[in-house]
Amino acid sequence: MDTSAAQVGDAVGLSGPNHPARHWYIAIVNNNTEKVCGERLRKLFDEYARKEGRRLQAYVPIQREMRVWRNGRRSEIDRVILPTYVFVYCTELERRKEIAYIPYIKRFFINPAGAPVNGHRPIATIPDDQMACLMRMVNDADSPVTIGLPPLRLGERVRVNGGKLIGLEGNVFREEDGNTNLVITIDILGCAMVKIARDLLDPIKCMNQ
Questions:
Q1: Is 91 exposed, middle or buried (0-12, 13-18, 19+ CB in 10 A)?
Q2: Tens of pLDDT along 97-129?
Q3: Which among 19, 26, 23, 5 is positioned nearest to 54, based on CA atoms?
Q4: Against a cut of 0.70, is the pTM above it?
Q5: What is the phi/psi pair of residue 141, to 5°?
Q6: If one looks up domain 3-128 in CATH, what number appears?
Q7: Are 89 and 11 in contact (CB under 8 A)?
Q8: Which residues contact 22 (CB under 8 A, 6 or more apart)?
Q9: pLDDT digits (tens, 9 = 90+) for 61-76
Q10: What is the rounded distance in angstroms from the CA atom of residue 138 to the CA atom of residue 144?
Q11: Which CATH number fits domain 141-207: 2.40.50, 1.10.10, 2.30.30, 2.60.40?
Q12: Domain regions of the chain by residue span
């Protein structure tokens, strides 16, 4: 399985005394090593699954894009959407005892808004449903996905009614040039946004009336 195209359904885990809850964490790696680190983690996690039945995941948000070079040559490239980030799905114990000590993992993203514990901010996690939406958008969108701070003029809640992103929910954002974007919230990171045709968006409040 390619770490850039992990299946959303694989992110569902069991929780309980014998199945500690797994969460999505953000591992920080060196720039331009995201794909390599993601692949190394994938192989390691495959070994865990084969020997111990543990289901961990590594995910690198990547889109295939056409690049036009200075000499006019065109070729497809893999664009890493979030440089230096590799998303890791594991338990807190697995993160602390195993993954944090892997040499190419520099550190984990901290939640700056979290209450300090013993003088340290907590490690950031991203809810499973938000990661599922991000993975769906990255894997299926025909336009480039960008991630950053939420736009200041977010509009109504909408659901995609057709195309590869059908069923995906978010907020509409209209740019000054008339382009329409679908925006989904990602805790800690801000939001993910992709251009989409206006006629593919239905207001959720109207559909529920």
A1: buried
A2: 999 999 999 999 998 877 777 777 889 999 999
A3: 19
A4: yes
A5: -70, 140
A6: 3.30.70
A7: yes
A8: 13, 15, 55, 56, 89, 90, 91, 94
A9: 999 887 777 777 877 8
A10: 8
A11: 2.30.30
A12: 3-128, 141-207
